[in-house]
Design goal:
By secondary structure, this protein is of the alpha/beta class. The protein has helices spanning 15-24, 30-40, 55-64, 126-130, 138-152, 171-185, 200-208, 224-230, 239-253, 271-280, 313-323, and strands at 8-9, 65-66, 71-77, 83-88, 94-101, 108-111, 115-117, 132-135, 158-161, 192-196, 214-218, 257-263, 286-292, 330-332. The longest helix has 15 residues, at 138-152.
Length: 356
């Protein structure tokens, strides 16, 4: 793709940035408000749609700028309606985002990526096997939601930072994107969830924002030995310290946290681990979300065999029953989009394989 034309993309900029942009063109500030409203309230994809701007201004903007920063390189639609987008970034790198619809709810959730690849390297996660490429900018994060809205023609009502990457290793841009999603896109903080593998400085930094954003901790094992094996960052941020930072998060934001727990047969789904989990979270205000393992493969290995096994429904239910003894609400996550590899942990940019 030719990147030499370099038109300025306006979607994913906040009102201040848009005001600076129009001022640099010698236009009055209220033009920024109009453009802001066309982009975020009306999902405009082209300047030609912005009918309250004079025709010559629309043409000038079309020459100088573009609406979307991201290009949709591929879109897959699952049998259950889940849509998986492969977006090309301005430097040619790719990320994936997912739009999930749940039959029992009218709301739509967008699952956003925060980095290209991920450095944490959890042993069951496809993104981990990509390695870390780079952080996304807040504009690249916000334009994922806007590109989804423009393409689908639907309004997103919930945001989860559960796509590719570790959001709390890109904390400043993620916080900036959250602020913009609240102020510009118009989605309330209570409808936003940040999921982390347990980066304590990032949790503390996010807590300082005092926003009622839900924090989800990807715990996956209650004991240090197992957690160190599947989530390597445990060596840096031990479980005990993590629990303390979750309690602080709760105190500062007033929000209950979510504990995410991947069920890997024979590795994390043993009954004694369910008991240990119940014990560990007893005095924490939290919900527990069990995620049955979604098949992933190691791209470096040719056999294509899944890395782990998903436990039987019976084992899943047993684990749930024991974990519920903690008195917490325990749910088994409804899987979405498995037929198009759009479920948790399956985002690996397959379309791009073989490209540099
Ligand atoms: N990096 C962040 C957010 C992205 S991953 C984090 O780790 O929390 C979103 C969720 O999907 C995490 O809970 C992650 O552990 C989970 N996940 C990763 N691989 C998975 C797999 N193969 N099956 C099920 N869940 C998986
Ligand atoms: Fe990174 Fe999250 Fe995947 Fe772990 S589960 S490798 S932290 S994206």
């Amino acid at each position: 793709m030719d990147h030499s034309t370099e038109k300025r993309a306006l979607s994913g900029l906040d009102l201040n940035e848009l005001t600076e942009y129009v001022k640099a063109l010698g236009l009055p500030a209220f033009r920024a408000k109009q453009i802001h409203s066309w982009i975020y309230s009306k999902n405009a994809a082209e300047f030609s749609e912005m009918t309250n701007l004079a025709a010559d201004l629309r043409e000038r903007l079309t020459r100088d700028a573009k609406v979307s920063l991201l290009t949709t390189a591929n879109l897959q639609v699952s049998r259950d309606g889940t849509r998986k987008y492969l977006f090309e970034l301005p430097d040619g790198k790719m990320v994936e985002s997912v739009l999930m619809a749940f039959q029992d709810r009218a709301s739509l959730s967008a699952c956003l990526s925060s980095q290209v690849g991920c450095a944490v390297g959890c042993t069951f996660c496809a993104t981990g096997y990509l390695g870390f490429k780079r952080n996304l900018t807040s504009q690249e994060i916000v334009d994922q939601v806007m590109s989804i809205q423009r393409e689908s023609g639907k309004r997103v009502s919930n945001i989860v930072y559960m796509g590719q990457g570790e959001p709390l290793l890109n904390t400043e841009e993620v916080i900036k994107s959250i602020r913009m999603i609240i102020d510009s896109v118009g989605i309330g903080a209570r409808h936003i969830t940040v999921s982390t593998s347990g980066i304590i400085p990032g949790i503390e930094r996010l807590a300082k924002e005092k926003l009622p954003v839900t924090l989800a901790l990807s715990l996956h094992a209650p004991d240090t030995e197992t957690r160190e094996a599947v989530v390597p960052i445990t060596k840096q941020y031990p479980i005990k310290d993590l629990m303390k930072s979750l309690r602080q998060y709760r105190e500062l934001t007033g929000r209950r946290v979510t504990i995410e727990y991947v069920l890997l047969e024979g590795v994390t789904d043993n009954e004694y681990q369910a008991e240990h989990l119940a014990e560990l979270v007893r005095d924490l205000h939290c919900n527990i979300n069990l995620i049955p393992y979604n098949p992933t493969t190691d791209p470096g290995k040719p056999d294509g065999e899944p890395l782990y096994r998903r436990p039987s429904i019976k084992r899943q239910e047993k684990f749930k029953q024991i974990a519920s003894l903690s008195g917490k609400t325990v749910t088994l996550r409804l899987e979405r989009g498995t037929d198009i590899d759009a479920a948790c942990g399956q985002l690996h940019n397959a379309y791009q394989r073989g490209r540099s």
